[in-house]
Amino acid sequence: MKTITILKAFPAFARFSESELEFIARNMTLESFHAGEVILRENAFSNTLYIIVRGVVEVRKKFGDQEIAVAELCAGAFLGEGGVAGMDSHRSMAIAEAITPSEMLTLPGNFLDLATAEHPMVAVKLLRLMSIMLAGKLRRLNEEYVLLFLEHEGTQNISALRNLQEEISKEWGF
């Protein structure tokens, strides 16, 4: 299947014109991953944006000596937004592993620079799209955090949740 046909199938790209989709497609690569293959390693440098085309990817976060599954992603989900957004020292915040055979479209880390120079509206629309997706992820995390906090209010876990909040704040710089 052609890359542009794949992009057109995702609602996230509905606001892109035909020429914009062609520009994006020319810069993408379709990659395959076997079940059990690690796509991103926590704390490893990554400057690639991954868009899941087919398959299921599990996202895990290390807490001490434990790995905890924090998300299961499928077709249409993005991984590695920070790397392609120009964060030179972007390190993956979690482990992403294909749990079924998977295919992903990838965009290289220099794509936004290229798009800014050659097709500025693509850069603007892609940044807007990634902002919307990241805001959605943050909203879900906030909701989960509040539910956890309320569930354990008045117990010893409040201290553990506050410690986790401090750890996350330090990691994210706020």
How would you characterize this protein structure?
- By secondary structure, the protein is of the alpha+beta class.
- The protein has a single domain (3-133), classed as Jelly Rolls, CATH 2.60.120.10.
- It is 44% helix and 24% strand.
- It has 6 helices and 8 strands, in the order ααββββββαββααα.
- The protein has helices at residues 3-9, 18-26, 81-84, 111-118, 120-151, 157-172, and strands spanning 29-33, 38-40, 49-54, 57-63, 66-73, 78-79, 95-98, 102-107.
- The strands form 2 sheets. Strands 1-8-3-6 form a 4-stranded antiparallel beta sheet. Strands 2-7-4-5 form a 4-stranded antiparallel beta sheet, with no helix packed on it.
- Helix 1 crosses helix 2 and helix 4 crosses helix 5.
- The protein starts with a helix and ends with a helix.
- The mean pLDDT is 83.
User: What is the CATH topology classification name?
Assistant: Jelly Rolls
Low-pLDDT parts are none
> Structural class, please?
alpha+beta
- The domain count comes to 1
Distance between the termini: 43 Å
Overall 3D form: globular
Estimate the strand proportion.
15-25%
CATH level-4 homologous superfamily:
Jelly Rolls
Q: Strand order of the main beta sheet, please?
A: 1-8-3-6
Number of helices: 6
CATH class: Mainly Beta
Largest sheet: 4 strands, antiparallel
Into which percent range does the helicity of residues fall? Answer: 40-55%
Mean pLDDT: 83
Order of helices and strands: HHEEEEEEHEEHHH
Indicate the radius of gyration in whole angstroms.
18 Å
What's the architecture in CATH terms? Sandwich
Number of strands: 8
